[in-house]
Design goal:
CATH architecture: 3-Layer(aba) Sandwich
Helix content: 25-40%
CATH topology: Rossmann fold
Number of domains: 1
Number of helices: 9
Strand content: 5-15%
Pfam family, one: AAA_31
InterPro entries: AAA_dom, DNA_Partitioning_ATPase, P-loop_NTPase
Structural class: alpha/beta
Protein name: Chromosome partitioning protein
Strand order of the largest sheet: 3-4-2-5-1-6-7
Shape: globular
Order of helices and strands: EHEHHEEHEHEHEHEEHH
Distance between the termini: 12 Å
Oligomer: single chain
Radius of gyration: 18 Å
Largest sheet: 7 strands, mixed
Bound molecules: adenosine-5'-triphosphate, magnesium ion
Low-confidence stretches: none
């Protein structure tokens, strides 16, 4: 069985979708087979993984999967990651990444929270057919509503990305408290926060101050990427500790591309950071078999 991780923060714009997409790519570079579930009606992750949804030519998306409520329903919606090389062939990363895509109308499932058992529908949709994947990553909306609760009910662990800003940190704490309080209500009592990933870090005194706060709040749960991060130039190993605010990250998201598709020094730095993050993920959640 794969390890299932939900990416969540009760704050928008902290890099949840970015982390989902580029961590999937980094895990694929390590040879792992990854299923990405886009459970956000914004569908940013779906687009960034190279999947274009033609409104005139409807395909099965998570909206229909959740609506059906059937065991194994997700299998009918699986698409391959759409990243291709300059010859139009799937890249080595994309060959190991599948996607359960989202569309704006997934929001219609939000109002079904009162239906008996609806919170377990994602878990049921994933039963019986995901054994060949090593990892499932579920991207979520920036709230703690029904769609996010479905993602919590389906997961073994939660990864919380947060930028070093007061409101984002408070929102990360709300996720942790929500899980502690409601894991049993979600019929998933062993659900736990596996890590907090600091994103969008700028070299400012304010960010340093807020990072101290994150470390005080979350302690060892902070995935500080404490090396070794192998930089591309000269084999020097340094310790960048956190994911920086770099325009290359935004560029890759806009272009719906893997960081690995750029062949320059900046890109190799971004890839090195995500490779370090993937190593941490594998060490903590895959090698130790830390399933719930
Ligand atoms: N480390 C980073 N450096 C620079 N830009 C970043 C970084 N991480 C994310 N971004 C950019 O910030 C914006 C918000 O990121 P993203 O969409 O991943 O956040 P999100 O948490 O998924 O937002 P939402 O809550 O709306 O789903 C995007 O334009 C993304 O490209
Ligand atoms: Mg998002």
């Amino acid at each position: 069985m794969p390890h299932i991780t939900t990416i969540a923060n009760n704050k928008g714009g902290v890099g949840k979708s970015h982390l989902t997409v580029q961590l999937a790519a980094a895990l694929a570079r390590r040879g792992l087979r990854v299923l990405v579930v886009d459970l956000d009606p914004q569908a940013n992750t779906t687009r960034r993984l190279g999947i274009e949804i033609d409104p005139q030519n409807a395909i099965v998306t998570m909206s229909e999967v959740i609506k059906s409520g059937e065991d194994g329903a997700g299998e009918s919606a699986v698409l391959a990651c759409g990243w291709v090389d300059s010859e139009g062939q799937p890249t080595p990363e994309s060959e190991l990444i599948d996607v359960l895509p989202s569309r704006y109308d997934l929001i219609n499932r939000e109002s079904e929270a009162a239906v008996l058992g609806a919170v377990r529908r994602l878990r049921r949709a994933l039963t019986g057919w995901i054994d060949d994947y090593d990892v499932v990553l579920i991207d979520t909306r920036p709230d703690l509503g029904h769609l996010v609760q479905m993602a919590f009910a389906a997961a073994d662990t939660i990864l919380i990305p947060t930028d070093p800003a007061y409101d984002s940190i408070e929102a990360a704490i709300r996720v942790r408290d929500f899980v502690e309080r409601h894991a049993v209500d979600l019929v998933n009592p062993d659900l736990r926060v596996a890590g907090v990933v600091v994103t969008r870090r700028k070299p400012t005194a304010e960010h340093d101050f807020q990072i101290q706060g994150i470390e005080e709040q979350f302690g060892d749960l902070v995935w500080s990427l404490k090396g070794p991060v192998h930089w591309p130039d000269g084999g020097v190993t340094v310790n960048p500790a956190y994911i920086s605010e770099w325009s290359r990250f935004t560029e890759a998201d806009a272009a719906a591309a893997s960081l690995n598709s750029y062949n320059d020094r900046n890109s190799r730095k971004t890839v090195a950071l995500y490779d370090a993050l993937a190593s941490r993920f594998i060490d903590e959640l895959i090698r130790t078999g830390a399933r719930a």
